[in-house]
Amino acid sequence: MMNLREEAIALMNYLGIRPRKRLGQSFLVSREAIIRICDAAEISKEDSVVELGAGFGFLSEELIRRNPRKLTLVELDRKICSYLMKKFGEKAEVLCVDMMSLLPLDEYSKIVSVPPYNISSKLIHGLVKSDFRKAVLVLQKEFVGKLRARPGTRKYTWISALSQAVFHLEIAGYISRFDFIPTPKVDSFIISLVPKGVNRKTAEILSRIVRIAFSRKRRKIGSILSIKDDKIAEKRVINLSPDELLEIALSAGDAIERCPDNQTDAHRDS
Fold it and tell me: What is the pTM of this model?
């Protein structure tokens, strides 16, 4: 019996696939890591589960064993999609689309993904506006450090504030870079995201606020936005807690929707 690394190499040869940097293709080949991911997702028979970026279906096989009510596999590579359809048949729905085109999601209770590292910020940003009970993601170690960064620190950015305001975030495990093929340059963490109950409209307003504010993160928030609380207005953006930014979003309401949005600077600082 082949191990997952040998199976991945055999499938790449069989399907004529060479992992492409443009697609960020890197395949997880550790059974132990796959089991940890599924354990963290806590899948039940009532769950509707989507796997974003199914690859060769190694994680999908374990998801099927957990017997969810419905499983949807999303994969961009058409050759791999055809293989997944033949492999799983009626056990899973296969969507051959860019995972980002499906966001925000609102029809799945659980989301599982080992996404390309180069879309991590965009994926988290999309999940902020989605409706689900739990997401389990594999993200590069350095990026997880940004997600968990505290106010006032160098790593604290708009994505830190946004994710912490909207989600309960926990690390569920560590994955070595050598558990992937091809081998990336960095190690990874398994993280779980459980929504705190911030509604979609508020999340969208908060998203705009943090991207505007963190494009000028050394300035006082009162010089960027109209803030009613004088004490908060005097704080520099980088020192504002996620809860304080959420309070600003809740009080700003529709007014922020009329503000110009400087997305470019903020995304560069994610």
Answer: 0.91
